[in-house]
Amino acid sequence: MDWLLTPGPVRLHPKALEAFSRPQLHHRTEPARALFLKARSLLREAFRTQGEVLILTGSGTLAMEALVWNLFAPGERVLVPVYGKFSERFAEIAESAGLEVDRLELPYGRVPSPDQVARPGYQGLLLVHSETSTGAMVDLPALARAFKEANPKGLVGADMVTSLLVREVALEAWGVDAAASGSQKGLMCPPGLGFVALSPWALERLRPRGYYLNLSRELKAQREGESAWTPAINLVGAVAAVLEKVLPKLPEHLALKAWQNDLLYRVGAELGLSPVPEVPSPAVAAFYLPEGVSYRAVKEAFARRQAVIAGGQGPLKGRVFRLSLMGYYNRYEALGVAALFREAFADILPAS
Ligand SMILES: *Cc1c(COP(=O)(O)O)cnc(C)c1O
């Protein structure tokens, strides 16, 4: 079995594996409805919202698209800070939905400051909480507050794909109205589900568009424990099982994830590697490649040890590599990965 050190998909939680060994449920039966409602209620707790969480069959990008298409009308103006591949994706989705998009372009690895988003004249702000492509984390509550002071009626939509269950998140308490996430990152489940969390205020502002993407239709069905179309019910079962296990010990889990990512950065520093992000997210450690070392050489040094890593995206392609312990790793397995990281670099950078 390979060590998945990629920031999604990740090493699975044993509760997810266990959930997949159950017989197939039919989605329009009582046990399936009970499971669906349980998953939604645990997800509400995970996102910390008094509103609703909708479970969609698709990946995280579908959840981002559903959020944008159902909360904003064509011609509305949104501000989208772009500081990595996923924030770039948010801007592209908003354009595809017919919105008027103002991009706030920042170099990859940096993060927007509250004064940069305190600009009036917008119906919305779209932000990626943990920018997986650069390893950077934004101060979401501070940015949401600054934006709303300038735009009291504006909505804040956040991508929490690699922060949910990796770092503390909250909707209403942080002034976030809607958030998107997926199953194959911090939830330690296989890919295939997207989640859209909506605060009570966002629920009042729903302006559904699309057919499969129509969140009002989903809301109606999901309140009853069903979904409009056939759901990936096996994945819903895995998500419920993992959340049931992790949420009662969430502070310990988040502390472990923070410690593990710091460990990767500590090893990187010992090896003389420079981190990419200005403010690091606990989801992934991103490093610039040392002078004269190709991404291919790093990838192969890890692959010889059965470890799969990730490279750079967009302008960082060929310039960085990324390692993540977002999946199911305990403290001692993480120490083993740290040893593997040192050994891999001993191949690449022989002691001088
Ligand atoms: C993985 C990821 C997504 C979603 O990607 P999918 O491949 O559609 O699941 C979105 N945003 C961020 C920050 C991600 O890391």
From TrEMBL:
Endoplasmic reticulum recorded as keyword: no
Q: Which UniProt keywords apply?
A: Aminotransferase, Pyridoxal phosphate, Transferase
Q: Which residues bind substrate?
A: 322
Q: Which residues form the Aminotransferase class V domain?
A: 24-209
Q: Which GO terms describe its biological process?
A: glycine biosynthetic process, by transamination of glyoxylate
Checking InterPro entries in the record gives: Aminotrans_V_dom, Aminotrans_V_PyrdxlP_BS, PyrdxlP-dep_Trfase, PyrdxlP-dep_Trfase_major, PyrdxlP-dep_Trfase_small, SP_NH2Trfase/AEP_transaminase
What cofactors does this protein use?
Answer: pyridoxal 5'-phosphate
Pfam families of this UniProt entry?
A: Aminotran_5
N6-(pyridoxal phosphate)lysine is found on 185
GO molecular function annotations of the record: alanine-glyoxylate transaminase activity; L-serine-pyruvate transaminase activity
Q: Which residues form a coiled coil?
A: none
Q: Which family does it belong to?
A: Belongs to the class-V pyridoxal-phosphate-dependent aminotransferase family.
Q: What is this protein called?
A: Aspartate aminotransferase
